[in-house]
């Protein structure tokens, strides 16, 4: 969930008011197994949820808001692996334009 949240914040530039954090985390929930190294590939639900988030991005502030949501949610999953998280955009065919990481700064 943590890796997915980080990815979502990078993918979707959705305003906090436009997309509540609980909606962001729900769309990223399918990525938890892959992010924690339990699944060999991201699930279809993971990729679909992230694609839906990516389609909602309208502004840089939207992207930052999603990033903050995901980064906060990831803290609930201490087993998330940065190496797995970084692979999600490519595996789901989503271009985020920057490396996805647990340590990403959502404000830049």
How is this fold's topology laid out?
Blueprint: H1 2-11, H2 21-28, H3 32-35, H4 44-56, H5 60-74, H6 82-85, H7 88-91
Protein name: Non-specific lipid-transfer protein
Domain Bifunctional inhibitor/plant lipid transfer protein/seed storage helical: 21-106
Keywords: Disulfide bond, Lipid-binding, Signal, Transport
- The residue-averaged pLDDT reads 83
Distance between the termini: 22 Å
Could you tell me the number of beta strands? 0
Q: What coarse outline follows from CA principal-axis ratios?
A: globular
Give the SSE order as H and E letters. HHHHHHH
CATH class of one domain: Mainly Alpha
Main pleated-sheet profile: none
Strand content: under 5%
Count helical runs. 7
Helix content: 40-55%
CATH architecture of one domain: Orthogonal Bundle
CATH superfamily of one domain: Plant lipid-transfer and hydrophobic proteins
- Rg on CA atoms, Å: 12 Å
Poorly predicted runs are 12-17
Q: Indicate the CATH topology of one domain.
A: Hydrophobic Seed Protein
Structural class by sheet pairing and helices: mainly alpha
Please characterize this protein's 3D structure.
This protein has helices spanning 2-11, 21-28, 32-35, 44-56, 60-74, 82-85, 88-91. It is mainly α and 108 residues long. It is globular. The relative contact order is 0.29. Residues 12-17 have low confidence and may be disordered.
């Amino acid at each position: 969930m943590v890796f997915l949240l980080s990815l979502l914040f990078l993918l979707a530039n959705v305003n906090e008011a436009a997309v509540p954090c609980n909606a962001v985390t729900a769309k990223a929930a399918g990525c938890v197994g892959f992010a924690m190294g339990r699944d060999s590939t991201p699930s279809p639900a993971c990729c679909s949820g992230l694609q839906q988030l990516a389609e909602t991005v309208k502004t840089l502030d939207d992207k930052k808001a999603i990033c903050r949501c995901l980064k906060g949610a990831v803290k609930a999953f201490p087993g998330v692996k940065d190496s797995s998280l970084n692979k999600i955009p490519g595996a789901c065919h989503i271009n985020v334009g920057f490396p996805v990481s647990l340590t990403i700064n959502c404000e830049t």
